[in-house]
């Protein structure tokens, strides 16, 4: 009995821990790229790039499911809702299958296809077809049988010539046979045949390349790769209609067949008579691309490549509504800026060699008050490949976006209103491509304490520019310290307390510039010229102890004191050496570092190109967190940018597959103790978290005592918030009662007393 009680207690504590872990993360995903749709009698299910959502057609309730809920960050390729089992099957391009149980919301991950001894590029799940409790999973290598009741895989059918792997796009059941539309013919076999793993049992009905096959009541319809529609007649498929484009999806629901092409949806009745033809201009504009369509409760639902999910009643002339959950324009966010009230995101990017692409751009997104504002490309005055976004710290209504092709975009009150370029400012176009080529590559940007905006202008002679508060531009001769300025690309800028600008470069390490002394200095690769592990520096950040943290393509370095710029002729950064299993190791050795952010407690959040994100202690000696796709809701290990809300401590992480945040407690220190508060207060019996004491100054001493004066906890703050686990120095939970919190500044010049009530 005691053991059973302990087991139940363990499970309860585990559930609480998991719930807390879920609450520590917040997803900010785009649902605009619809990969597939499925349906229930009153619900439509939509799979986006790496998340999904459902809409109840009766209540209009929309529910989202993301990596925070347990989905994988990999790319979804197919989705299917089983009405019989009340389960949703989510298939991925890498072969992963996730089964979501509607009854309790639990998720089961099946890796059987991933583990098959097959090339990785052949494991994509293309389609689900259910018949008699079995789901036939069409993949790029063949068909796999899956028992939706037991959640176990069965036989695998390699149905290509002499048993070879063959890409099966879709399967259908018709008159006792299973039909497979493949890259090499439509093939069929008797579904009652107990030896379907034998390729000889599968016969070729029609040769050629086929994209889909579907049962429509008493008809069997197939479409080949060129968009020619066929019907099954006398043991062969006979073509009868050529589509204007190749189809991307075909499915039958409620006696209706829907065929999707990029520009048009064709809706047929069960006699294959065209009921309605829907063009993309009817839904939104000629620029949207259709991916799939389905029919639920008299409504047609249409998925698009970049604009989400639309719906309307099937009747001609009906108005289409967008059903997509709010979110950013797309998941591949390249850069962020975060204030206490908003998050700004941009999507333009460049490759390893700073070549800009996505020149059509995706505009700019802003998140505030739990809502998204997406500014489309048509409204950003032609600014392409926007790579940085920066809010004026003295005026949150003024924002600047760096375009790595078009210049510097000014945004006021959420409206882009001016584009600085080579013709109207001090910015310059690159000169290596000829006199008629205009390409103004602005990237790094930072405001100094006087409100001047500093920017980097890549691949020109003197690429350090400043826009003064009076509207005047000024250029500084950075070429005096660069070997080949017209081949140099700049990344980000950090400004320290002395006003020194630190600039990361593509091939010249890190450049420092102090305006007061009009001096340039740099650190590059080699022990005597800066000690960087690579000249390709991707990011710099100044911490609260006036250290400069440098991320390169080959690891991490730290300049111990930025004030050395004034005193040392040659600056030198050093690695952080940690003790790992009694061996001296270099922290983040050889890691390609993409971003560094410093939180209110001086911890460093370090993003990498393929290893996720690390959070290390102020001196780097302790790795407190290492989040990857395997141990967290991160949708990808490719970290593009990291920014932190200094008021709440929320860490925003932009990846190439979506943005997510971690709700930490490391907030910036306050200037005084006037705004100290305690939460939750009171602490009720059902609460299982920690008590937070926020609004602190840095290095404040905190002592917690019971009403009789017995000390139960003591610490010193790093930043603006501390946590107390409501134990007496970690030994046991304190009893119910009122506890006094005594707070004092390091020099004793300021004090504050708070109370917290604990109810057990």
UniProtKB/TrEMBL annotation:
Keywords: Signal. It comes from the Bacteria. Residues 1-19 form the signal peptide. It holds the Pfam family PorZ_N_b_propeller. Residues 44-203 form the PorZ N-terminal beta-propeller domain. Gene3D superfamilies: YVTN repeat-like/Quinoprotein amine dehydrogenase. The keyword Signal applies. This is ABC transporter substrate-binding protein. It comes from Flavobacterium hydrocarbonoxydans. The lineage of its organism: Bacteria, Pseudomonadati, Bacteroidota, Flavobacteriia, Flavobacteriales.
């Amino acid at each position: 009995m005691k053991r059973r009680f302990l087991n139940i207690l363990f499970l309860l504590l585990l559930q609480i821990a998991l719930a807390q872990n879920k609450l520590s993360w917040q997803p900010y995903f785009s649902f605009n790229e619809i990969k597939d749709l499925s349906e229930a009698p009153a619900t439509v299910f939509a799979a986006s790039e790496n998340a999904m959502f459902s809409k109840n057609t009766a209540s209009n309730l929309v529910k989202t499911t993301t990596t925070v809920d347990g989905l994988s960050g990999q790319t979804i390729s197919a989705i299917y809702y089983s009405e019989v089992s009340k389960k949703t099957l989510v298939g991925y391009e890498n072969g992963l299958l996730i089964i979501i149980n509607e009854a309790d919301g639990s998720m089961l991950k099946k890796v059987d296809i991933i583990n098959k001894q097959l090339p990785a590029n052949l494991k994509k799940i293309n389609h689900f077809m259910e018949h008699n409790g079995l789901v036939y999973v069409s993949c790029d290598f063949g068909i796999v049988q899956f028992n939706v009741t037991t959640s176990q895989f069965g036989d695998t059918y390699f149905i290509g010539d002499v048993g070879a792997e063959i890409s099966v796009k879709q399967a259908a059941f018709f008159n006792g046979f299973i039909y497979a539309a493949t890259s090499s013919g439509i093939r069929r076999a008797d579904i009652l045949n107990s030896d379907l793993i034998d390729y000889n049992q599968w016969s070729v009905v029609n040769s050629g390349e086929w994209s889909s096959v579907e049962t429509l009541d008493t008809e069997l319809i197939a479409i080949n790769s060129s968009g020619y529609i066929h019907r099954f007649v006398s043991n062969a498929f006979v073509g009868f209609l050529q589509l204007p484009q190749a189809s991307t999806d075909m499915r039958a629901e409620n006696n209706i067949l829907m065929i999707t092409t990029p520009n048009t949806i064709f809706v047929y009745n069960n006699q294959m008579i065209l009921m309605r033809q829907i063009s993309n201009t009817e839904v939104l504009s000629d620029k949207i691309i259709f991916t799939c369509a389905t029919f639920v409760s008299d409504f047609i639902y249409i998925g698009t490549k970049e604009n989400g999910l639309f719906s309307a009643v099937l009747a001609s002339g009906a108005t289409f509504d967008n059903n997509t959950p709010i979110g950013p324009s797309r998941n591949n966010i390249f850069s962020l800026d975060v204030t206490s009230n908003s998050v700004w995101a941009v999507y333009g990017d460049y490759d390893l060699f700073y070549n800009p692409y996505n020149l059509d751009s995706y505009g700019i997104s802003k998140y505030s008050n739990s809502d998204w504002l997406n500014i489309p490309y048509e409204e950003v005055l032609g600014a392409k490949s926007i790579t940085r976004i920066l809010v004026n710290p003295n005026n949150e209504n003024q924002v600047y976006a760096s375009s790595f092709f078009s210049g510097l975009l000014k945004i006021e009150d959420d409206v882009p209103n001016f584009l600085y370029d080579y013709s109207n400012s001090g910015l310059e176009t690159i000169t290596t491509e000829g006199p008629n080529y205009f390409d103004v590559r602005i990237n790094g940007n930072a405001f100094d304490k006087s409100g001047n905006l500093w920017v980097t202008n890549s691949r020109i002679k003197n690429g350090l520019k400043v826009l003064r508060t009076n509207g005047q531009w000024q250029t500084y001769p950075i070429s005096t310290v660069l070997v080949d300025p017209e081949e140099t690309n700049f990344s980000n800028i950090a400004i320290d307390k002395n006003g020194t600008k630190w600039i990361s470069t593509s091939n010249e390490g890190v450049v420092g510039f102090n305006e007061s002394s009009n001096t340039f200095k740099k650190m590059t690769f080699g022990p005597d010229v800066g000690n960087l592990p690579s000249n390709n520096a991707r990011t710099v950040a100044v911490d609260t102890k006036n250290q400069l943290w440098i991320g390169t393509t080959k690891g991490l370095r730290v300049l111990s004191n930025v004030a050395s710029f004034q005193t040392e002729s040659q600056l030198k950064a050093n690695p952080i050496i940690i003790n790992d299993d009694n061996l001296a190791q270099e922290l983040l050795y050889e890691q390609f570092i993409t971003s560094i952010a410093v939180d209110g407690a001086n911890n460093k959040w370090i993003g990498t190109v393929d290893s996720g994100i690390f959070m290390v202690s102020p001196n780097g000696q302790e790795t407190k967190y290492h989040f990857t796709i395997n141990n967290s809701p991160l949708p990808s290990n490719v970290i593009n940018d990291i920014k932190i809300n200094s008021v709440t401590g929320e860490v925003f992480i932009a990846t190439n597959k979506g943005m997510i945040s971690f709700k930490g407690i490391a907030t910036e220190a306050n200037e005084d103790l006037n705004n100290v508060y305690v939460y939750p207060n009171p602490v009720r019996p059902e609460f299982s978290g920690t008590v937070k004491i926020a609004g602190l100054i840095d290095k404040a001493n905190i002592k917690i005592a019971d009403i009789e004066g017995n000390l139960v906890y003591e610490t010193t703050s790093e930043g603006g918030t501390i946590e107390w686990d409501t134990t007496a120095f970690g030994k046991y939970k304190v009893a119910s009662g009122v506890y006094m919190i005594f707070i004092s500044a390091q020099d004793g010049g300021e004090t504050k007393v708070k109370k917290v009530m604990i109810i057990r």
